[in-house]
Write a structure and sequence with these properties.
Blueprint (H helix, E strand, L loop, with lengths): L7 H13 L2 H8 L3 H15 L4 E3 L4 E3 L1 H24 L8 E7 L1 H6 L1 H11 L3 E7 L13 E5 L8 E14 L1 H7 L5 H4 L7 E2 L9 E5 L2 E5 L7 E2 L3 H8 L5 E4 H9 L4 E3 L7 E8 L7 H10 L4
Parallel strand pairs: 3-4, 3-5, 7-10
Antiparallel strand pairs: 1-2, 5-13, 6-11, 6-12, 6-13, 8-9
Helix pairs in contact: 1-2, 1-3, 2-3
């Protein structure tokens, strides 16, 4: 009598190859050879009658059929993980894995204490933390969650707001001593500003203010432009290179230590939202649900 699900090992190989981006990396993870994994995926494709992967010499990519199958396979394995945990009577002793992508601002300044708390509560859950300022593809790259900045486009993803992060202008005491303290927006135009280039558009991110009860978007200009990592503007401001706009949760400690000074405080009042996003149709594991619950507990 043949077993109906004797091919699940091949499914697990397929998921691992996608998550690691190549047969070589997946082979290291599974302690085997790329050729063994390639044969496993080929068997699975032959069983389904569909090509799941587009193979190149260096990386693999998903076909459309592969994307759909990957999503359903992950959901099925999440169910099996939960069933095993419940069957063992482990109750709140969660196991499994949560893969989350976050921007550098949140990854360095907001998330660490939350992850420390999560690890204490659920020590058997493996957390894969990806800190990047690009917008990852949750489905194709195997992420359970992502934290993103700004208003979410109508992408079909679920977004739950974490906070409205307040913005303010800062500069070093040395810069302000050398160049003077601007008192108005007109005076700010005469100063060295440290703008950030938005990765999605390649354009300068406007500085946002609340002025006379109105929302004002203002484009900073400078001989310096920072891209990819928004924390770079703060590092340059600390070195006396100019004025930058950043989140209060990033510069608060530096202001308290005297490394930075707030500029034009009467223009404060604007903020940007951070949200946790996930695919609505994916069956979430208990570990993923626990992570969402922790992230949004104070939201």
């Amino acid at each position: 009598m043949s077993r109906k699900f004797d091919y699940l090992g091949d499914v697990e190989v397929f998921i691992t190859v996608v998550e690691h981006g190549s047969f070589t990396a997946a082979a290291v993870e599974l302690s085997t050879t790329p050729s063994v994994l390639s044969r496993a995926v080929s068997r699975l494709e032959a069983r389904l009658g569909r090509q799941l992967l587009q193979r190149t010499t260096r990386r693999v990519g998903l076909t459309e059929a592969g994307r759909i199958y990957l999503e359903q396979a992950r959901s099925a394995f999440s169910l099996l993980d939960d069933a095993e945990r419940d069957g063992r009577g482990q109750g709140g002793d969660l196991t499994g894995r949560v893969k989350i992508s976050v921007p550098s601002t949140y990854g360095h300044y907001r998330l660490p204490p939350l992850l420390a708390r999560f690890s204490q509560q659920h020590p058997r859950v493996q957390v894969e933390l990806n800190i990047t300022n690009r917008n990852v593809d949750l489905i194709a790259e195997g992420f359970d969650l992502a934290i993103r900045l700004g208003q979410m486009p109508d992408s079909g993803l679920v977004a739950r707001k974490l906070e409205e992060a307040a913005l303010l202008l800062v500069a070093s005491p040395a810069y302000l001593h050398r160049m003077g303290v601007p008192q108005t927006l007109d005076e700010l135009q005469q100063h060295s500003c440290l703008p950030f280039i938005m990765p999605r558009t390649g354009r300068i991110a406007p500085w946002v203010f609340r002025y006379d009860g109105r929302d004002v978007d203002w484009l900073p200009r400078s001989t310096f432009e920072i891209s990819d990592d928004v924390l770079g503007v703060v590092s340059l401001a600390e070195q006396g290179m100019g004025i930058c706009q950043s989140y209060e949760f990033i510069v608060r400690d530096r202001i308290e230590r005297g490394q930075l000074v707030e500029v034009l405080p009467h223009l404060r009042g604007r903020s940007r939202p951070f949200s946790v996003i996930f695919a609505p149709h994916r069956r979430q594991s208990a570990a993923t649900r626990a992570m969402i619950s922790l992230l949004t507990a104070d939201a």
